[in-house]
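Encode chain A's predicted structure.
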Amino acid sequence: MNKKTPLLLVLLLLLSTAAGLRAQDPYRDARTGTLGLRIDGGTSWSFGSSFENIGANEANLIQPYLGAGLLYNIRPWVRLGADYSFTQMVREQLFSSLPALSGDGILAGSAEGSIYRDFKTRFHGASLTGEFDLVELLGRGRGPGRFGLWLGTGLGCLFSQGNTWDIIVSNVIGADKQVVRFGGHNEPHDYNALFIPVTLSLEYAFLPQVALSVGGGYRFLPGKQDLAPKSQAYAKVGLVFNLTGKRYRAKQSRPVVDPGYAAPIHDTVYVEKIVEKPVEKLVEVPAQNEVTDDMLPFVTFVRGSSVLDESVNASALSSLVSVLKANPSVRFDILGWTDHTGTDEINAPLSTRRAEALRDYLVGQGIDASRIVTVEGRGKSLLTGEVAFSAIARKAQAVIVK
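Encoded structure for chain A:
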């Protein structure tokens, strides 16, 4: 069957029944020319992501779903909606073996790779939909108007943000020594993707302007990206409120005034004059404490990069700028470091570029460049052990000049 056949059948059904629909009682009146609000929650599933679970608990495939939307009820059987939703996708990969390493001076049994990956994506969805009440359409408006079976579709967009966390193990066996390393890597990611929603919900109006809704929907992502799922499904339960029914509109109507009525005329006008009395208030300013290096937080970088990610370092950058602006007499150096991965020929200029990136950010935030004494890259971090390969070693920091 052609994919367009169901859509044509729905359109023919709408045309054949539209003439017989009419609002007869308060339940249909609340869905005629009124605004509505719906609030719901439930669970969601994502399918077809390139990042699938490996050796992990499948329970995390079920994620929470929250939604809200505004409705405009054109007729008892048709309405338009603007909706917002929040859900997320979680994946885990747990590897039981590592890829083998080979090369000069490396013996058999050497291995290196990720042993665990944690992938999380948060979805903020916005969509516009048109919905049709199949109960009203098939019943031609003759029922009590309390039940509705709403089928809808439209167009939406997912605004997605997330991150991937890797735990990396390296076991290098040489002729004279064996080196085992553990490290971690956190990589942020974001993308936007269009989707086509299909929704179905059963509603029961237990009050003329309040209905209980149970249903769900499906989202198709035609322009799928690498990290995005191919589709999403969700089940939800919530309430639908019609905010501007007949009773509300009656309260807003103007009272009828007898044309023979004349309002009394007052020949005295009273003007109230407000005299403001100033109030003196003493504010004690605490004495300024001495600024130390511990008060200046450092910023971190992704391995091999000198790009300062303001979202990852938002808290540190905010604190650093605040302390420096509050103490304009403080002069300082900016130093950059790298982890112990790679050669000195690569790490020395990389550490300098990281220090320069922090300098450029501070100057852009209004810090006087004359307060910066030196901007210097120190190469590999002075840290030792596992932390020498972590994000803590890939940093740039401000150091107070005594």
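Helices lie at 5-17, 26-29, 134-139, 246-252, 314-326, 344-364.
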